[in-house]
Amino acid sequence: MMRAAGMVMIVAACSGLGFRQALLYSRRIKECEQIARSVQLLLGEIRFRHLPLEEAMRRAGMVESGPFAVFLGRLAGRLSGCDGGSFYALWQEELEVYLGQSLLGEEAELLRYLGQQLGQFDLEAQLGNLSRFLDQWRMQTEELKKQEERKGRLYRYLGVFAGFFLVILLM
């Protein structure tokens, strides 16, 4: 009886690991979609309200929810109290804090690149940079969705089969 319970626990634990890994992909996609909404809001605030970058970030951080909105709000707060430091240096510092609690992988490079492009040029150049970023971000998110479909199923199956494999080995 104890042996059977142990086998069931092994299969359940391995299956749980596979399902957890698949769930991380879907959470990563949701985080990417939230970032896209925040940047779209930022773009709209700059384009239609003609707000400076700092104020647009503050408003986007207040309207949206989630970790990236907190990132934008914190960055806006640091920009308002800035003593002449570079925008990119502040962006990098806050981005590292954000990435420490984020699920993002290679998408983080796009965020680093966005930080390099923002705050340096005139209004039209910033709008163009934000639009290009959104296009690249959406393509990256679509690729991530395709990967999630393939790899999510793979992780779930691997978890279950690894559990059965371990049970067979232990018999």
| Contiguous helical run count | 6
Low-confidence stretches: none
The domain count comes to 1
Estimated helix fraction:
over 70%
Provide the gyration radius in Å.
Answer: 21 Å
Tell me the series of helices and strands, N- to C-terminal: HHHHHH
Count all strands and give the number.
0
Terminal CA distance = 14 Å
Apparent shape: elongated
Polypeptide structure, described:
The chain has one domain (2-170). 85% of the residues lie in helices and 0% in strands. The chain is built from six helices and no strands. The chain has helices at residues 2-49, 53-63, 67-80, 87-100, 107-117, 123-170. The protein starts with a helix and ends with a helix. The mean pLDDT is 88.
Summarize the structure.
With 171 residues, the protein is an all-alpha fold. It is built from 6 helices and no strands. The protein has one domain (2-170).
